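Students often ask why we bother encoding 3D structure as a string. The short answer is that it lets us treat folding as translation between two languages. Here is a chain of 297 residues written in the first language.
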Amino acid sequence: MRQGKLVAFPTETVYGLGADATNDKAVAGIYALKGRPTFNPLIAHVTGPDMAGRYVEVTPLAQKLMDAFWPGPLTLVLKRRKDCPVSLLASAGLETLAVRCPKNKVAQDLIATADLPIVAPSANTSGQISPTTADHVKNDFGDRCPFVLDDGPCPVGVESTILLATQNPPVLLRYGGLAIEEIETVIGPVIRPNSDPTTPQSPGQMKSHYAPKTPLRMNATSADEGEALLGFGPAPEAVLNLSPRGDLTEAAANLFAMMHQLDNGRWKGIAVMPIPLRGLGYAINDRLKRASYKKDE
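And here it is in the second language, the structure alphabet:
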């Protein structure tokens, strides 16, 4: 990483494609390898609040959120410090920077040993299914990403929740692995606006994202001919089941892995049973909505 090379590594959410956040060329290499639009910002990963404070202005609200939920699946978008060394490309031209402190020990050790902020979007081709195992990364990138740290499956399984914390109350930019209800028990109500995918302030705001090659449809009660049914709750007819007992945490952890399994060319479509809109169900439905988006809609 100090040499400007890319390293895929695990976090508790998904595997990230990491680079030295202060190296313009390395950051550009992430966009090039992923085929990611350069107006889509990246998240800088740090070891904790003290390290974050080197790069962003930590508001009292942000400090409260960090104290409550870091390390963990919460990203905060804050104003860049005037002396912030992080590449402007990582901020996509904005005056803000997204920062997160991952819970995974391998990720923490990597950041601490490199002594660098590490930008790390999901380690997959842009817009496709996010990786929750090292094999997902290797199957997607092959030799184009020669460095992959393998720490097994990611336990959370969906990307971090993102809040714009430059104001109070904060604005939800992306549902993710930390339930919004948990956040609201600590800081009170969070603003939940409709995002504008043409000018994203954070990752995960594009209309089409996390998409398998196989067409996917939501809220299915059964599978049509040639489709695979991805179940939730009791569903003996399902090819795979996100959580037979209807547990949203288990479903989030399984979501991308099972989408990878069904996206194998065998099925003409993937039909996903309804997921309740509560807790992590918001994040799961958000990913499914973007995965099922058709450009002519």
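Translate back mentally: Confidence is low (pLDDT under 50) at residues 195-200. Keep this in mind for the problem set.
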